[in-house]
Amino acid sequence: MTIRYTKIAMILALAAFAFLTVFNNVTDYSSNFNFVQHVLSMDTTFPDNAARYRTIDEPWMWHGAYWLIILGEAMTTVLLAYGALKLWRARRADGLAFNQAKGCAVVGLTVGFFVWFFGFMVVGGEWFLMWQSETWNGQDAAFRFYMALLGVLIFLNQPDTSDRQP
């Protein structure tokens, strides 16, 4: 049972993290919005880079991108919290039932991975060249987040073969 409780606790911890991220983005909208605005504007990247044609200077698009991030984080929160609940309810079931209860948590971890890896590393980091900015570079933080999600996803997907875990 220890392994099952550990998996549930890790999913809950990541749900709490995703929730606090959403909470902070909504309650401190302008601080985090400024991050999105500067990344999309590419105003702190190298001034002579040839990719500045990718710049987005429309405030409605900055807000739209920011709300898309918040939506992805909120989806991660809900899916992980519900996934933890499903795992909790199946904690005493046989291995097959516990494995089947992992689905929602797996989807939540995957959504979170896409938010922080695809959103921040691929789109922000490479398309908008966030890596060039000393001030508005969230790649290190995003790396920590998506690696935690990925590590828990791998651990969660280790099969539970019996109803009695060591």
From TrEMBL:
Q: Which InterPro entries match?
A: DUF2165_transmembrane
Segments spanning the bilayer are 65-85, 106-129, 141-157
Question: Which keywords does this Swiss-Prot/TrEMBL entry list?
Answer: Membrane, Transmembrane, Transmembrane helix
Which species does this protein come from?
Pseudomonas canavaninivorans
**Which Pfam families does the record match to this protein?**
DUF2165 (PF09933)
Reading the lineage from the top rank, the first entry is Bacteria
Q: What is the protein named?
A: DUF2165 domain-containing protein
